[in-house]
Amino acid sequence: MPAIEGQRWSCHSCGNCCRTLVGHLTYAERLRLDEQKWSEKLGVSAYVRSGRGWALNKHSDGACVFLDPQNRCRIHSEYGEAAKPLACRIFPFSVRPTQHGWQASLRFDCPSVTSSKGEPIAQHRRWLGQLVAELDERGEARNEAILFQRGIVAADEEVEALMARLVKWVDDPKRALSERLAGAARLTATLDKAKLRNIRGSRFIELLDLLMASLPAECRLAAPAPSPRQRAMLRQYAFAHAEHVSLADLQSLRARWSNRWRQLHSARVFLRGEGQAPALPGFEGVPSFEAIENVMPAPENAQAIDDLLRRYLVARLEGRSVFGGGFYGWPVFRGLAACWLSVAAAGWLARYAAAASGRSVLNFEDIACALGVVDRAATRLPALGTLAERTRVGYLLEDDGVARLISACPFTVRHDHQ
Ligand code: SF4
C-alpha cells in the first residue's frame, strides 16, 4: 500500500467512475454475466467489444448499463460486491506486479480521493490483498527490468534509494510546493544527463546524496519564465492528458476516424494557443486561451491545493506508477520528468476549468477536477506512452524546461508553511 500521510478514501457512490471509465472484462467475468442473464434483464447487451477485448456496455451518455438511478451497481445490489468485475472492485486503487509482490497505487480520478474523504487508506489493505490474490491465481505476477537510461539497468537498491529521497523531498511541508517541484525537476534533469555507466551502487547513492544536499540552494535560484515553445508544449501535453476516447469511439471505425481528425485539428489549435480553445471532455464551457492565461491563484486555497498535490505526488512515487511497468516501460528519469510535468499539465487544465466557468480566480475544485483528468486511466492513457510524448518530455528536460513550466504554474504561489 502506498504510505500517503493524511490520505483517506471510502466510496461515496457518486457514480463518477461508472460514467467515465471503461470496465474491461475477463472471459470468466463475461461468462458470469451470461449465467446471470444480464442482457435479458437489462434489455441491452451487458458487454461489448472494446479493441481486442470486451468491456461493460454503456449508455449513450457514458453511464455503465449496470448503474441504477440511485448510483448503485445492479450487479452489486443483486449478487453482492464479490460478483462485480475486478476492474470495478479495485478502483480507485491500481496494482502492479513486481518481483517483490504487488505494488498498489491510488488514483486521483475519484472525488473521494481528491477530497480525502472516508477511512484511512491503510484500512483497505486487507480487501485489496484479497483482490490481488485473485490476480495471483490468474498468474499475472511478473519481474521487470527498470532502466535508468538507454542500456543501463537500474539496480533495486538504487531505485529504492532514489525513490525514498524523492518521497521525502516532495512530502516535506516546510518547503513551498514550487520549490519541491522545481527541485525535483532539476535533480531529474541532472541525473538524466549524467553518465551513470560507471557510477553504480554505493557511488550512485553518494552522488544522489550530494545532489540532494545542493537542492535547497538550487531551489532558491528563480527559474526564468518558460519560452513560448515550452508553453506551447505544455498546452499540447495538457491536451494529450485531457483527450478522451469513449467506448463508442472504440467500437466504430467511422467514429475512430472522425475522432482522430478532431484530435489532429485540436492539437494544432493547442499548439497555436490563440483564440477560442477547443472543447475538452470533463469540462463545462469553452474558454479562450487569453482567459485561461489570465486565471490567477487564490492564496487562501494554497494550503489545501498544496496538500492535494502532495498526496498525488506521493501516491505516484510510492506506487511506482512513474516508470517501468507502471508507466509504459519508460526509463526512470524520463518517467519522473513526465510525473512532474503532469502537475504542470494539471495546473494548465485547472486554469481551463476556471476560465470555462467564467472565473478568473482558481479554486480547489478546479485543481481537483484537473487532477482527475490527468490521473484518468491511472496515468496509462495510451496516447501518453507514445514516442512523441517521450520526445516531448525529453525536450522539456533540456534548458530547465520542466522547472520553468512548474514555476509558472498558477498554484505554485509562494506561501509560508512555517
Ligand atoms: S468515483 Fe469514487 S466515490 Fe465515486 S462511485 Fe467511484 S469509487 Fe465511489
Topology:
Elements: E1 8-9, H1 16-20, E2 24-25, H2 27-35, H3 38-42, E3 47-50, E4 53-56, H4 74-79, H5 86-90, E5 93-98, E6 101-106, H6 111-114, E7 119-120, H7 125-137, E8 147-149, E9 152-153, H8 156-170, H9 177-193, H10 202-220, H11 228-242, H12 247-251, H13 253-272, H14 289-293, H15 302-318, H16 332-356, H17 364-374, H18 387-397, H19 401-407
Antiparallel strand pairs: 1-7, 2-4, 3-4, 5-6, 8-9
Helix pairs in contact: 8-10, 8-15, 9-10, 9-16, 9-19, 11-13, 11-16, 15-17, 16-17, 16-18
Key structural traits:
3 domains; binds iron/sulfur cluster; disordered C terminus; 418 residues; mainly alpha; two-stranded antiparallel sheet; globular
Shape: globular
The biggest beta sheet is recorded as: 3 strands, antiparallel
Mean pLDDT: 88
Main β-sheet, spatial strand arrangement: 2-4-3
Number of domains: 3
Structural classification: mainly alpha
Beta strands, count: 9
The number of helices is: 19
Low-confidence stretches: 414-418
Distance between the termini: 30 Å
Strand proportion, as a percent range, falls in: 5-15%
Q: Supply Rg.
A: 22 Å
Ligands bound to this protein structure: iron/sulfur cluster
Describe this structure in words.
- With 418 residues, the chain is mainly α.
- It folds into 3 domains: 8-137, no CATH class; 147-220, no CATH class; 228-407, no CATH class.
- It is built from 19 helices and 9 strands.
- A 3-stranded antiparallel beta sheet has the order 2-4-3. A two-stranded antiparallel sheet has the order 1-7.
- β8 and β9 (152-153) form a beta hairpin.
- It is globular, with a radius of gyration of 22 Å.
- Residues 414-418 have low confidence and may be disordered.
- Iron/sulfur cluster (SF4) is lined by residues 11-17, 91-92, 110-112.
